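SAMPLE LOG
Freezer: B-3
Tube label: C17
Construct: single chain, 210 aa
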Amino acid sequence: MLGWRAPDRGALFVVSGPSGVGKSTVLQGAMARIPGLGFSVSATTRAPRPGEMDGVHYHFVDRTRFDALLAEDAFLESATVYDRSYGTLRAPTDAALARGESLVLDIDVQGAAQVRRRCPDAATIFLVPPSIAALEQRLRARNTDSDEMIARRMAQVEQQLAAVDQFDYLIVNEDLDTARAVFEGILLAELHRRSRRGSVVRDVFEQLGR
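STRUCTURE (predicted):
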């Protein structure tokens, strides 16, 4: 893992892209190398799966509580998928960033659009497949999904890719090593913006006697 002085305020990263494009792979590498970087813990109405812990994997809430949080505008983004709702809570996210921690949201393009509206300083990153045909080949090569599931995922690709021009950074994942290097470079650059390093400026000025 790399080592440096934590930023005064953490960064919020939004990562999107179609299923099979390699988001999990590049994220795992970044998590292992970049200190102070973690996943945001979402709230959900679905029941915990075996081994999942409340507050670690998700904040598990019932439908009534989730709807109350929606009414309070407590989410940076939220969505309902197959009668299960998910959302990124604003308060714990803001608290983590204020502590100098940085968070990654791995969400779809609709969720990313919501975050952009509520948190315009978030850095948004979109992973692009080298081609739609290559993406389908990758999904089939994983041997984890049925033909029906692959067809469902591919039906969503057009909607995902149509939002490509709404993101700050675009990474074409044609070569994995290159994609990883570019992804980590983006994160590192954002974490070293002067706006996040006011304490460094103050330290330098103090040494200069200013």
